[in-house]
Amino acid sequence: MIQRWINVLQFKIDRDWIPATSGSALYIRPVLFGIGDALGVRPSDRFRFVIETCPSAPYFTGSVDLLAEETYVRAFPGGTGAAKCGGNYAGSMLAASEAQKRGFHNVLWLDGIERRYVEEAGLMNVAFVINGTVVTPPLSGTILAGITRDSVLTLLRDLQIDVEERPISIDEVFAAHAAGHLESAAGIGTAATIAQLGRLRHKDREITIPAVTPGSPLGRAAAELAAIRSGEKADRHGWLMSI
Questions:
Q1: Residue 19, number of CB atoms within 10 A of its CB
Q2: For 23-46, what is each residue's pLDDT tens digit?
Q3: Residue 228 and which of 73, 91, 123, 158 are 20 to 30 A apart at CA?
Q4: CATH 3.20.10.10 intervals, the chain
Q5: What is the secondary structure of 36-65 as a DSSP string?
């Protein structure tokens, strides 16, 4: 499927738009949408597939400050939270806008049932480093199975860094910080790759998460991923494709 996408892209036209700056890229986004003629609440019978490209600079220049969301919910079990569809983005914008009015970049999404367990960081997957172990929420149907998430977890295991895919509560995050065990945290996304988290607020409590350093687990994974993308290191997993 990916090869068919690549075959239809007019890279000769877009070549001059590809940034040469480190950390930048030509962003490629396949999009599928319905174009049926009928107006009604039913699935479309015809679709159009397009590929959008645009130059992309590094997504974040500093740490990302998050407000743990108490009112809105990104996804419920049985919904579309695990799918990369436009409705998931649209449903997050009001919460993000309200968080920005309070001085934060975006929200830290909690689960829709107990409002207790961490799910995603804004539009990104999320991971925490606690006592040298990288902890990230499991793919339980409400969390997007991001390709960058998968790549980062694979590289962490290559580096023999312990990884746990398990539920992590907001209380555990704050308790780990209070005990001095929370070493860093980051959002993991397609364009952002690994974006370190800074301030985190939940109700009446707030912490500042330590930065991701080059020698930390997430820092090492980020460097590995960047080196593979740029061709500086061998692609051991067959992720790269020449175009």
A1: 14
A2: 788 888 889 999 998 888 889 999
A3: 123
A4: 64-229
A5: -S--SSS--S-EEEEEEEEEE--S-SS-EE
Q: How far apart are CA 4 and CA 22, in angstroms?
A: 28
Residue type, 143: I
| Residue 157 DSSP SS3 | helix
Determine contact, residues 155/224, Cβ cutoff 8 Å. yes
Euclidean distance between CA atoms 79 and 61, whole angstroms: 33
**Does residue 242 register a pLDDT over 80?**
no
Query: Under CATH, what is the fold of the domain 64-229?
Result: D-amino Acid Aminotransferase; Chain A, domain 2 (3.20.10)
Tokens at 227, concatenated: 């080196």
Look up residue 181 and give its two tokens: 């065990």
Confidence of residue 10 (pLDDT cuts 50, 70, 90): low
Q: What pLDDT shows up at residue 6?
A: 53
Amino acid at 71: T
**Mean pLDDT value across residues 137-164:** 96
Read off the pLDDT band of 19 (50, 70, 90).
confident
Euclidean distance between CA atoms 30 and 23, whole angstroms: 21
* Structure-token pair, residue 69: 């969301």
| CA 226, 231, 234, 239 torsion-angle sign | positive
pTM over 0.85: yes
